[in-house]
Specification:
GO terms for molecular function: protein serine/threonine kinase activity; zinc ion binding. Keywords: Kinase, Membrane, Repeat, Transferase, Transmembrane, Transmembrane helix. The structure is a single chain. A hairpin with a 4-residue loop joins strand 27 and strand 28. The chain has one domain: TolB, C-terminal domain (Neuraminidase, 6 Propeller). A 6-stranded antiparallel β-sheet has the order 1-2-3-28-27-26, with no helix packed on it. By secondary structure, the protein is mainly β.
Length: about 325
């Protein structure tokens, strides 16, 4: 075989190798994907818990879920409480009652945690943020009704930069993001109503990556926006639709330790995963009540081991998916 034929053979072999590396297989309970040099990662349905009701372990409209220090926390929206579980769904504790006093709640929507394990919750109906110890003891609160600095009309998503000690809150009516220190002192805000870069239309959820950049699910604009910690626009991705990288009301958002962005695509009843620049990686899910199916998925979180927890809102349950092969 001459040199020219050798080159042709090597080129064809390379094409075959590349084709095989980027093959994607999607099943309901078993999702395989490889992207950007990652090893072959398989996500499988593991377990689910919750039914509709007001007893321990039951839910009425859960909108978020969050893992911290080996426990799963769920704001139980219409039951006006926080519930705490083991990672397998065993009930541990609950706190909160309906009201406006310290420690009481009126439609708690989203939760986040600082590096000490303290819990921050957007107390939507009371137009404030409340801060608790990991065991539910009240620490402090901030927020009043209005459009000014530190005020809210519809506090929705919340995220804590555990490295830099900042708290970010999105307001779905004021169409802005506000930035605070861990005690609720106002620092900055950005955003206005619209569809241009940096503008918002019903911001639903947000999270922070390892560099401190802030990602927001801009629900009515069917996109994800990425900002610097000071609110400077970096990039955005997504359009309305059912295809890869398209959305029908992107709701929950979580960033894992590798800065991959997990999004609950609410209207399409699925989860989509992207890298930090918005490059599509994979997706899974379909409408329904079976394992791995969703009915209005809202909140999402990824724990340090890569396990994914989804608040399956209209099914009144939490679903857990696990990586069945090593991740990088």
């Amino acid at each position: 075989m001459n040199g020219s034929n050798n080159k042709k053979f090597i080129l064809c072999s390379s094409v075959l190798v590349i084709f095989s590396i980027f093959t994607i297989t999607i099943n309901l309970n078993d999702i395989n994907f490889i992207a950007h040099g990652q090893t072959n990662v398989t996500y499988s349905f593991l377990t689910t818990w919750g039914t509709q009701g007001s007893e321990e372990g039951q839910f009425e409209g859960l909108n978020d879920v969050h893992e911290k220090n080996g426990f799963i926390y769920v704001p139980d929206y219409d039951n006006d409480r926080i519930q705490k579980f083991t990672p397998d769904g065993e009930f541990v504790a609950t706190w909160g009652t309906e009201g406006k006093e310290d420690g009481q709640m009126n439609h708690p929507h989203s939760v986040a945690f600082d590096s000490e394990g303290n819990l921050y919750v957007t107390d939507r109906g009371n137009l404030r943020v409340q801060k608790f110890t990991p065991d539910g003891e009240f620490i402090t609160k901030w927020g009043t009704k209005g459009e000014g600095d530190g005020q809210f009309l519809h506090p929705h998503g919340i995220a804590v930069d555990e490295i830099r000690d900042f708290v970010y809150v999105d307001d779905a009516t004021n169409m802005n993001i506000q930035k605070f220190d861990l005690n609720g002192t106002f620092i900055a805000k950005w955003g206005s109503e619209g569809s241009d870069p940096g503008q918002l239309s019903n911001p639903e959820s947000l999270d922070v990556d390892s560099q401190g950049n802030v990602y927001v699910s801009d629900l009515d604009n069917n996109r994800i926006q990425k900002f610097t910690p000071d609110g400077e626009f970096i990039t955005a991705w997504g359009t309305e639709g059912e295809g890869k990288g398209q959305f029908d009301s992107p709701a929950g958002l979580s960033i894992d330790d590798s800065d991959r962005v997990f999004v609950t695509d609410r209207g399409n009843a699925r989860i989509q995963v992207f890298d930090s620049n918005g490059i599509f990686i994979t997706m899974w899910g379909s409408p329904g009540t079976e394992n791995g199916q969703f009915a209005r998925p809202e909140g999402i979180d990824v724990d340090p081991s890569g396990n994914v927890y989804v608040a399956d809102t209209n099914n009144n349950r939490v679903q857990k998916f696990v990586p069945a092969s090593p991740q990088q």
